[in-house]
Amino acid sequence: MTTIERVDPAGPVYDEWYAVYRSGHERPFDQPYSYAEQRVNLTPDPYRDAVALLARDADGIAVAAACAELPLRDNREFAYVEVVTSPPRRREGHGSRLLDDLVEQVRAQGRSRLLGEITWGVGEDGEPARRFARRHGFEADLLDAIRELPLPATVPELVLDPDYELRTWRGPCPADLVDEYATLRHLMMQEVPSGEAGLEGEFWDATRVRHDEEQWARQDREAQVTVARHRASGRLAGHTQLVFPSDDEVFQWDTLVLPEHRGHGLGLALKVRTMQAAADLLEGRRRVTTYNAASNAHMIRVNERLGFVQTAWCEEVLRRL
After folding, report:
1. Region 150-311: CATH code
2. Which of 13, 66, 152, 292 has the largest count of CB atoms under 10 Å?
3. Dist CA 86 CA 65 (whole Å)
């Protein structure tokens, strides 16, 4: 028998929920969000709602955790879902029961498309996870490659086209850049491979950028952000983010160069400059992890120039309700 309860991230049951969630991310390439990061992720705000569920067995022991993020300003038909079962309690039906309940919760909120992820290491058999996804109505949408850069690392020399300049910062985005930086964040979903799910560009404006910065502070994250500016037009041409959580991990998140500015080596230049500027933050960390669509050959070449090596696959899966 499996019983399901909804979890308040500000309440005492969150500790049990997080313990199960963390236990299910046991593989070295599949690192969980920290306690603080996930608590903020599960707290509704003006841009997204969230649902967290906990499954218990007949003895009241927490055995599986699930969550869903529901965008409120864009992609309102979607829910981003995750289900994790404690490793010793897998194949007992708890994850399936929990997923069924999560589906009904998001369906009741008007969501008709669910997006999730399944991961497996290079050289491993990903078919068991794929079978679970198919059994629950999910189909493959986009294949990503997970790559890691072991630290410490020697980055290539910075080579920058003279038609461009780079600016980098930590903390709040400079006021004179925030509106254009918000535009770059909005265009990210449209300008990189994103499968056939039908995702639209995320809503971003200056207010959301400031909200995001406040969220990162609450999550004990620090970030080094770099943008490229086209000298002649004065407009931003691209950006990248290097994010530092409270542990020893580092994540290379968004990197975007607008189509009209590609072919000038800006992707590599942005990443090199960001790592140079973040040298003090990188010290003592063990690796940088990044995800790229397997079809994004150019960005993969850029990452390999930096020394990234592939460690795993991530398949984005879609279920239509």
Report:
1. 3.40.630.30
2. 66
3. 8
Structure tokens at 51: 């649902």
User: Which position has the token pair 């080596």?
Assistant: 265
For residue range 75-131, what is the model confidence (pLDDT) as tens digits?
Answer: 999 999 999 999 999 999 999 999 999 999 999 999 999 999 999 999 998 888 889
| 317 in Cβ contact with 139 (< 8 Å) | yes
Q: What is the largest CA-CA distance in the chain?
A: 68
Q: What ranges do the domains of the chain cover?
A: 3-111, 150-311
Element (H, E) at 114: strand 113-121
Cα dihedral 107→109→110→114 (10° resolution): -50
Predicted TM-score (pTM) above 0.70: yes
User: What would the pLDDT profile of 255-264 be if each residue is shown by its tens digit?
Assistant: 999 999 999 9
Q: Which two tokens stand for residue 71?
A: 């965008």
Please determine whether the domains at 3-111 and 150-311 fall in the same fold group of CATH: yes
